[in-house]
Amino acid sequence: SAVMNLEEDDFRAETILDLLEYGVIRERFSITRPELIRQAVEEANIRFGIYGSEADESVTLSWTNGLKRIMYGICMKGEGEYGGDGYGFYPLDIQEGEGALELVRFTHFVETLIAVTEARRKPATLSAWGVYLEDTADALLVSRPGGDDPDYEIFARYLEKLQAAGDTLAESVSFRVFRESFLQQLSSEVRQGNFIGGGITFCSLIPMRSIPFRTIAMLGLNFDAFPRKEKRAPFDLIKLNPAAGDRNLRGNDKHLFLETLLSAQERLYISYLGRSPRDSTVLP
């Protein structure tokens, strides 16, 4: 989802570096020293933008300019100015040997990420977007042998559904429209598959589905968040003509709280903000 949410006009340095927190990406590109890469990005003055603009000089803060400085610094000696593409740049001689190879691998990663992001510009059919997803996974993620990866199984099932739907729907859609549907369905399947899967389970409160656990923690029970306060529109006819059985959010949350109390076998942990984060005044 982190790669899918990446936009061409939001290629910020921290966003790209955060992707290296995923082990499947580091393994795919054989990256082992993220701290070295972070240092190189800072020294190359990479901030945001793929190409930048010469008009506002944001080109000097872009990824293409910064990577060019790093690569020229590896391949050539000297720190003199080089011309090219209508503007000059200074090579960055900061690494040699294994460190330089690490930066070359990182450059390959960023160039692959740019190509993947730019491939979304034109609308495409569902079948074409399915092929795009598969190609993106092959390009950016390490392949796991065998069928022991549950996340990949969910992804493969989604591609099968997408192919079946694409056989009947030939209309082209933009990537943003497709992405919303893809992330929503993927998130739904992941939540269902991971519920009570061992270890710690994170979930929302669902009425009449409480299951006993040794320890239950309820987070975010701030005075203005729980029980929820229902805000109805002035034209809501249910509010104007209330009847028995109407939904009551505040009442539902009180019932959920009682169910949670009954489900905690040994420990119940409740977390809330007791002081204002602005001026530290006491909150209800």
In words, what does this structure look like?
This protein has about 280 residues and is mainly alpha-helical. The protein has ten helices and four strands. The protein has helices at about 15-20, 25-30, 35-45, 65-75, 100-120, 125-140, 150-165, 175-195, 235-240, 250-265; strands spanning about 80-85, 85-90, 215-220, 265-270. A two-stranded antiparallel ribbon has the order 1-2. Strands 3-4 form a two-stranded parallel sheet. The longest helix has 21 residues, at about 100-120. The chain starts with 12 loop residues before the first helix and ends in a 14-residue tail after the last strand. The model has no long low-confidence stretch (mean pLDDT about 85).
Short characterization:
The chain has helices at residues 13-18, 23-28, 34-43, 63-75, 98-118, 126-140, 150-166, 175-194, 237-240, 249-263; strands spanning 82-84, 87-89, 213-218, 264-270. It is mainly alpha-helical and 284 residues long.
Which short descriptors sum up this protein?
single chain; 284 residues; mainly alpha; two-stranded antiparallel ribbon; two-stranded parallel ribbon; 10 helices; 4 strands
